[in-house]
Each structure stands twice: as structure tokens, then as C-alpha cells.
Specification:
By secondary structure, this protein is α/β, with parallel strands linked by helices. The chain contains 21 helices and 17 strands. The strands form four sheets. The chain has a seven-stranded mixed β-sheet with strand order 4-1-5-6-7-8-9, sandwiched between helices. Strands 10-13-14-15-16-17 form a six-stranded parallel β-sheet, covered by helices on one side. Helix 12 packs parallel to helix 14.
Length: 537
């Protein structure tokens, strides 16, 4: 089948696609690669991957693609699901015989509600969906494919048997050829990574049990399944051959350092290739391993500190001690490893006092750059279940995760700490971390040492200041479920969520959609979107 893999259009600057752990508009222009779509695209011959947000594509640009394909696979999320349905409806209006499937954590945990949200969604793929989609594209009957839920001709929703987790990760083809065929690496920016960069997975799953983290609890699992070192090195070498303009390679595994001997072996191989690289890590990597990585081309670690309060860390099962994190930060500094630290405000047990403790901790460990997010209770996570059980999700906005502008909202509220206090604390955190003499001097010195990055840093600084001044606190408006289905011609979907469930469906008002997707102004009444403020939850 002629297959389209689509990360649908959304808010301007919105990063909520098949590579983002938080679905939201960032403080500065940021886009992650749609690796979760690129992987099945590498399996399906002659397929096409379209990543609409970084390419600047609107609904009017992608709707005609329905006529050119037999199968459309859309990646969706809880915040963007209603808008993604609009995109699917437009595709199906262009080609009524188009087979439409949704993938992503949202539909993995809510398959039936997702299918019942719109008649244009023919199936959803649960769990890992790489080879599942491959079977669909080969026109195998839906009834015979493990790992999907689909709508039978009778209208009944059928849930097929679960697909076993992949164990042979080397059976997955490389994504780099798909990137070369369908994407522009220059479209992808991450503030703390060199530009242009390229990201890829060397394994899936995470051994940690953090209650807030989306991917391990919905798709990837808690067993770290890895590709062989030889496979990783072969694709890394290929990446720099086909993209000689690359400045950096990023390994997007949830925690690349979970398997330390493998991480060290991979690092030594990258050193032989002369590749500069970065990765996700937990703040517990021993100095001996850090030394090996630093000596082998490692430039930056993306580290989820989350909180400076031990009890808050315990509440979310982080598996990390604050004193160990301090030692880790000291080791990285002495070894010359740059750290981008991520923090989350509003986790269970948070108070004004613990927020201040976390700000002091961040200033003490002093990562080069930081990301501050608010706790996002995505469906399928333990944090979401606890929030529902304890009444932490206010009823007035259905637990909205993003604002009308696509930026992240504080969805959780506690009797002792309201969501407005939590969200306001994010801005205070940023100001107190960055707007101090030592940090300003550090950033200025970096620009003097690397004049080629000065223009980019100044642009990002201006974007950041504007973000703080314009953050939208209003939740994204919603339409009743019936209106979501009826509002567009005939079709369905985008990312995670179900319009049947008001707590997980977000449908923008028609006027807002027309504002955010000007190219669709005359044709479609809605196209949906999302927003947020963080990379690692």
C-alpha cells in the first residue's frame, strides 16, 4: 500500500510529534526528530514521512496527500488528539477509501475510546507498532494482525491480541535513510544541542519507574532492550556520511547510561569515528564511567534531576538520592561534561517550600542550561491514575494540559498548592537561575569562545524573554464530543487522547484553529494542536 506517515499540523512552533516526550510549544524554537514514525517508515517500502510542524505545513498543505496514498498513519497524543482527528478527517475527505490508523501512547492506553471518537479512524496500533504497521501496509487482514484495535464492518470495536515486545532490536532497519529521503536536518533545533544535530535510538525501555514518565509506561516498557554496539556505530557512521553538515549526534534512549558497559563500549567506538555525541542520563552515573564517556567524544548529558527535595523524588519513584545527584554534578563539572538539567514543579508532595528548595538545588549544581516543566499527568501513567484517585485534576477545565497558544499548563492542583502558584513558580525558577551575575557571565563567555553560536544564542535569549512575558494561562478551549466529529467533512485524527473522554480530549474552537492554521482558513473548521515546556518528564 502507498503509505503516508504523518506528524500532523498544529500550533505554530508546537513540538508534539513522534519524538517529543512533552507535547507542547517550548520556550525557544525546538523540534525533535519524529523517530517513532521514521522507524516503521523504514520498514514499509516506498513510504513517505511528513513532519508537518517543523516543515511549517498547515492543514491545507497536508490534506491533498490523502489522494496520493492508500494508508495514512498519524502519530497522536492526549493534548492533540481532537485536532489530529480533524487532520484525518481532511485526509479522508480527499480520499474516502483511505485507510487511517493512529499510533502513539494515547491510543495505546485508550484504544476503544480513541476509535469511538471518530468514524474515520479505522484502526489504532497499540504497544510498539513498527512491525504492526508493516503488516497493515502489506495488506494483511486487520483481523489477523496482533497489536491493533480496529472497527469491524459491523461497527464493533475489536481488540486483537497484544504484540510481544521486540527483543531483537537489530531487526529494526536504520532511520537515517528515511531522514535523508524525507526530512531537512536544518529544520530540527534543540537549544542545548549543536545545530544541525541528528537523534536516534540505540535501545528502548527504561529501568527506572518514575510515575510521571510517559513512554516507558505506555509503549517502551521498563526493560532496556538494546541494539548491538556494531549496529549503533554503523548507523552513526552512516549519519555523518549522508549528512556531512552535522555537528552532533544525540542518543534519545530514555536512559542511555542504564547499561554502563555497553555505553562505554559504544563511546569508545564513537571516539574511533571522531564523532561528537550527547545522550540522556540519570544523575547517578559513577565517575569512572563518566571519565570513559568524556574521553570518547561525549559533549553533553541531558539529566532529569526533577526536584531537589528527597521526599518528592521518593513520591514519584525516581530512584535517585539528592546527595548522589550533587556528586554526579560535581564529577561532570570536573570532567568537562556539559549538563542540561531538567526539573519538574508540581509533583505529588510539592509545596512552596520544596519549590524553593529545588531552585536552590538547581543553582547549587548549576547545570549549563535548564528546562523547567510542570507535572503533566498523561493518561496511562501512574501519576495520572493517582491524580484521578485523589482529585488533583480540577473539574473546571477537564484537566487541560496545554493553553490556547500550545504552551504547557499546570494541570494538577493540591489543597495546599494551587496550579496558578505552580505555573508562576516556573517563571520564578527561570529568572532566579539565569538572571544572576555568574550565569550571565558564563553564557557571555561561551559566546565569546564560540562566535559562530552568538547569533543563535541571542535569538534564543530573545525568544525566551518573550516567552516569559507572554505565557498563556488559559486552557485550550474545548468542543463537545459530538461537535468534534461533526465539525469537519469526514475523517479523523492526530495524537494521544479521546474526544469521548473530556479529561483527555482537547478540541480548539474554530476561530482559534483558523488563527493558528491560516492556510486552512477557508477550507476546514478545525485542525487542533498542543503545547508544553519540557523534554524529559
Amino acid at each position: 500500500m502507498r503509505t503516508l506517515f504523518l506528524n500532523p499540523p498544529s500550533y505554530e512552533g508546537f513540538d508534539g510529534g513522534a519524538g517529543a516526550r512533552y507535547q507542547a510549544k517550548r520556550e525557544i524554537r525546538s523540534f525533535w526528530y519524529p523517530t517513532w514514525l521514521a522507524q516503521p517508515a523504514a520498514i514499509v517500502p516506498d513510504s513517505r514521512l511528513v513532519d508537518a510542524p517543523p516543515a511549517g505545513l498547515a492543514l491545507a498543505d497536508v490534506a491533498p496527500l490523502g489522494r496520493q496514498h492508500d494508508l495514512a498513519v498519524l502519530h497522536t497524543s492526549s493534548p492533540t488528539f481532537a485536532g489530529d482527528v480533524k487532520v484525518a478527517e481532511a485526509l479522508k475527505a480527499a480520499n474516502p477509501s483511505l485507510l487511517v490508523g493512529f499510533v502513539g501512547p494515547k491510543v495505546a492506553v485508550e484504544p476503544e475510546a480513541s476509535l469511538r471518537a471518530s468514524p474515520v479512524i479505522d484502526f489504532v496500533a497499540r504497544e510498539e507498532f513498527d512491525f504492526t504497521i508493516g503488516e497493515v501496509a502489506r495488506e494483511r487482514p486487520l483481523a489477523c494482525i496482533d497489536g491493533i484495535s480496529y472497527r469491524a464492518k459491523s461497527g464493533q470495536v475489536v481488540h486483537n491480541a497484544a504484540r510481544p515486545m521486540l527483543t531483537d532490536m537489530d531487526s529494526l532497519p536504520f532511520v537515517v535513510p528515511v531522514y535523508k529521503r524525507d526530512l531537512r536536518v536544518e529544520d530540527y533545533f534543540i537549544g542545548y544541542l549543536r545545530h544541525p544535530y541528528l537523534s536516534m535510538y540505540t535501545g528502548r525501555g527504561c529501568r527506572s519507574r518514575c510515575t510521571f514518565c510517559l513512554w516507558p509506561q505506555t509503549v517502551g516498557g521498563h526493560h532496556y532492550r538494546t541494539r548491538s554496539v556494531a549496529s549503533v556505530l554503523a548507523e552513526a557512521e552512516l549519519a555523518f556520511q549522508v549528512f556531512p553538515q552535522l555537528k552532533e549526534l544525540f542518543f534519545d534512549d530514555d536512559t542511555f547510561t542504564d547499561d554502563r558497559p555497553r555505553a562505554e563500549a559504544t563511546a569508545r567506538g564513537l571516539a574511533r569515528l571522531g564523532i561528537t555525541w550527547s545522550c540522556n542520563a540519570k544523575a547517578n552515573v559513577p565517575r569512572q564511567t563518566l571519565q570513559v564517556l568524556a574521553d570518547s567524544g561525549l559533549r553533553l548529558l541531558l539529566v532529569g534531576y526533577e526536584s531537589g527535595n528527597q521526599q518528592v523524588l521518593n513520591n514519584v519513584k525516581k530512584g535517585l538520592r539528592v546527595d548522589r545527584a550533587r556528586q554526579f554534578a560535581s564529577d561532570c563539572r570536573e570532567l568537562g561534561i556539559t549538563v542540561h538539567g531538567t526539573f519538574i514543579l508540581g509533583l505529588p508532595g510539592e509545596t512552596q517550600e520544596t519549590i524553593q528548595e529545588t531552585i536552590r538545588f538547581a543553582r547549587e549544581v548549576n547545570p549549563h542550561t535548564i528546562q523547567v516543566s510542570v507535572a503533566a499527568p498523561y493518561p496511562g501513567t501512574e501519576l495520572y491514575r493517582r491524580a484521578m484517585e485523589n482529585g488533583w485534576l480540577p473539574q473546571d477545565d477537564g484537566g487541560a494540559l496545554v493553553s490556547e497558544a500550545g504552551t504547557q499548563l499546570a494541570a494538577l492542583s493540591y489543597p495546599h498548592l494551587g496550579r496558578t502558584e505552580i505555573l508562576n513558580s516556573v517563571d520564578d525558577f527561570y529568572k532566579r537561575f539565569y538572571f544572576r551575575a555568574g550565569k550571565l557571565a558564563e553564557m557571555s563567555a561561551e559566546m565569546l569562545r564560540q562566535p559562530s553560536t552568538a547569533g543563535r544564542r541571542l535569538r534564543e535569549g530573545a525568544e525566551f524573554v518573550r516567552f516569559l512575558g507572554r505565557r498563556d494561562r488559559a486552557p485550550a478551549p474545548q468542543l463537545p464530543a459530538a461537535d468534534v466529529v461533526a465539525a469537519a467533512p469526514a475523517g479523523g485524527g492526530q495524537q494521544k487522547g479521546s474526544v469521548v473522554n473530556a479529561r483527555t480530549a482537547r478540541a480548539p474552537k474554530r476561530a482559534d484553529v483558523l488563527r493558528d492554521l491560516p492556510a486552512a482558513r477557508a477550507a476546514w473548521p478545525g485542525a487542533g494542536g498542543v503545547g508544553a515546556a519540557g523534554r524529559r518528564p
